Amino acid sequence: MGSPRNAVSGERGIVVMGVMNRFMNFLGLQEEEEIVERERFSGQEDAEIETPSFESRRNQRGSNVVSIHSQKNVKVILYEPRSYEEAQEIADHLRSHRSVVVNLQRVRNDQAMRIIDFLSGTIYALSGSISKIGSNIFLCTPDTVEIQGSITEILTEDSDYNRMR
């Protein structure tokens, strides 16, 4: 056999290897099976310390996933077109997942109808939505934005209130 000094240093080596194995396992750099195999070869078993399995840590990490899309700055574009030709620019904003408020008060009625028709087709293709929020003012949103409520109901209530006075 060896001297007592060699036996002590041998035990320290095994303890250090056990600590290193647990540390590598904790970081996910080594799977649990490899540690069990190494401990079997060393003949030492450490019953006091239990390490969680590789699969349970992998599942814990998965819960910290955050959608990248939700971290972006959200922009709402205000647009007041002067002609039908500007409808393409509004559609490009919608394709880029930006909401657009379109004010058609400075456009002739026939041009306004053409713009709304074009935007309606664009919104349908993108699975978005369009809502009237005022006289000749529309809110166009991509599929990533949900519109809740209705301003036209509020406008109706205000006009009813004014008639009663």
From TrEMBL:
Instruction: Recite the UniProt keywords alphabetically.
Output: Cell cycle, Cell division, Cytoplasm, Septation
Say which species the protein is native to.
Paenibacillus barengoltzii G22
One GO CC term on file = cytoplasm
On subunit structure and binding partners, the annotation says: Homodimer. Interacts with FtsZ.
> Which protein is depicted?
Cell division protein SepF
Q: Which domain of life is it from?
A: Bacteria
Q: Which family does it belong to?
A: Belongs to the SepF family.
Subcellular localization is given as:
Cytoplasm
Cited function: Cell division protein that is part of the divisome complex and is recruited early to the Z-ring. Probably stimulates Z-ring formation, perhaps through the cross-linking of FtsZ protofilaments. Its function overlaps with FtsA.
Region (Disordered) residue spans: 40-62
Gene Ontology process terms (BP):
division septum assembly; FtsZ-dependent cytokinesis
Pfam families for this protein: SepF
Q: Does the keyword Nucleotide-binding apply?
A: no
The record's listing under InterPro entries reads:
Cell_div_SepF (IPR023052), Cell_div_SepF/SepF-rel (IPR007561), SepF-like_sf (IPR038594)
